[in-house]
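Help wanted!
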Amino acid sequence: MARVVQKYGGTAVTTPEQIKKVAQRIIDSYNDNNDVVVVISAKAGETNRLIEMAHETCPGQEGCEYDLLISAGEQVSVGLLALCITSMGYTARPYLGWQVPIITDSCHSKASIETIDPTKINRDLKLGAIVIVAGFQGIDRDGSITTLGRGGGDASAVALAHVLEAEQCEIYSDVDGIFSADPDICSNAHKIEKISYDEMLELASQGARGVQIRAIEYAKKHNVTIHVRSSFSTASGTLVTREDSTMEGVLVTGIVSDKNEAKIAVLGIPDKPGTAAKILTALADTDISVDMIVQNVSQAGLADLTFSVSKSDLDKATLITEKIATELQAREVIADKNISKVSIVGLGMRNHAGVAARMFTVLAYNNINIQMISTSEIKVSVAIHEDYTELAVRVLHEAFRTS
Amino acid sequence: MARVVQKYGGTAVTTPEQIKKVAQRIIDSYNDNNDVVVVISAKAGETNRLIEMAHETCPGQEGCEYDLLISAGEQVSVGLLALCITSMGYTARPYLGWQVPIITDSCHSKASIETIDPTKINRDLKLGAIVIVAGFQGIDRDGSITTLGRGGGDASAVALAHVLEAEQCEIYSDVDGIFSADPDICSNAHKIEKISYDEMLELASQGARGVQIRAIEYAKKHNVTIHVRSSFSTASGTLVTREDSTMEGVLVTGIVSDKNEAKIAVLGIPDKPGTAAKILTALADTDISVDMIVQNVSQAGLADLTFSVSKSDLDKATLITEKIATELQAREVIADKNISKVSIVGLGMRNHAGVAARMFTVLAYNNINIQMISTSEIKVSVAIHEDYTELAVRVLHEAFRTS
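Answered by r_m:
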């Protein structure tokens, strides 16, 4: 008898038919002699609907009232799923975050889980019940409802799997698993059977779907095995797990592209210490995150600073940058929406020099110009013109797939 | 400085504009130097939407999952209203039922309030906050969310007014108060300034809108003054209060009609003891409530039993009645949808004989045939053909209004 936590996303519970299918899947797992704890999200679009209602009524408000409002979405899903399982003749025990309780800090709308008391859930499982828990929400030590921010449902599931000592945490969504590249771009992309936490973190950070970054970080910290799989198929997906000796044999585990970034270049800055810091601090102060950063010093004592931000932040970031650039007496600021980021990720890079060089060679050979580069121990990302995105993914996948 | 509980119904919070208006009204009351506690319902139609979702997903289920689901509607209202008040520069403290806590029994979907702990709300009021509480919901002693059934929001408000020792409990809806008759039927109907609990109970039982029966019962028991008023006007409405000496001077306080009943007649039943009980028990067993009951014994030792049920129960009730009637060897069963009930209510009846006789005379004089009669100490109801409803209300209002 194993114990499993299953997390279903909002696309799995949009219609009564889908809810019934999810209920059947849960019951099948229960009848396979498993203790089953289910974490469920609000139906797709519901949380956005609540957020929109809040914005229409009183723009710009947040805090505990806001969390109380937007946590209503999971409540509906939990109620419906529990009703459905009960109507199929099984015992379901529904829990909202505060009922478990899932204790978080008081950082409303992006709270972090501090502790989970497993007592009630363990009791219910012992009595043979299927436990349904609302994801994305908790309660702080003052008794206010909190929410964990986007993707918080995955974090709830992994944290529950940890405290309940579950064998694995299954994260169901509309993707079949993690692939060596997007199958829509590379027809010969393969599903990765097993991937390390660090690789998965890099892939998710660079745009891969299937599981949220905070959940992976939590899983890594507490060594929880995540199974990323599809709610529309019974095929197994991808295990995200502690790294083992076989993993380092693969140079590049996955290739991922992201078209959601844009580039800002500040050209001809008089080269004094602290100029980059000045621009980047101004952006950070308005909550704009910068991803890739490149600085060159040209011959005339003038520097060029180029960096990437999310496309949705581009207009705001350009305005702020132009203001500081004027103060710094820079020559000009150029904003460019037409870039994309292509990344290769693999544990094997740690022990093999020359992976980045090979990547640049392959791109150059295919006439793809590199605009920015950033690297980590197990990842190389390049910014290129977005028209070349799919080509770049294909040639890189071809170049690295047999290594 | 007074303390007041204000309850707003679902029609007051259907749009962002309405929510803003309600927020302004609450703030006005707060600025009039009142401690304000607000009880709010789900927006009109929202609870029905949730119930429908439950029925679509798994028909016929109830219990704790169901209450958890349908209590999500008030949660949204509480969150939005609290956000709105905060955005207007005031401190709002939102509470769901379990957060107060409002402790109920475990009778899911029609729970009764057992106790309310006023500690947190008293603390918030002392700190100058406006307190917003979700109506209609509570928590049982096992920690499950419960709901109080339709109209439970009014009961929440009155119970809170009691434990908080508020000066009055204002129940806002889309009616201006309680009228001597429906102003749409009698153009000269007047708003009643003050009415006793017992009269209000009778009027509400016979179909008057403005405040729910359970709330009136609770108010009577704990001597809470209810102010029934409109959320669309600042005019004062009707006070529902302990009876005083002036009230008995009025023979008939109000006249009310109800078209939601239907009649079933079982004719030619061999007259043995227990036949009426047999039919009525069968109906009660399927949760059908019977309102008026009349039994006549005819000369040939055969009895006729006539009773009224809610129109929505008529088909089901007719089937059950026909089955039992066959067993009892009754001659026939006749169902009739086309009836209405007209009632006159007044404390003064207690000390004045002949009010019923006068009612019947007035109806007869206007050629309105009476099909059934039921009376209490302060009420006379008659069932008539529904085509005569408005006529009956008008002639009775005219006959009794100067008395």
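OP: Thanks! One thing I noticed: Residues 2-173 of chain B form a domain with the Carbamate kinase fold (CATH 3.40.1160.10).
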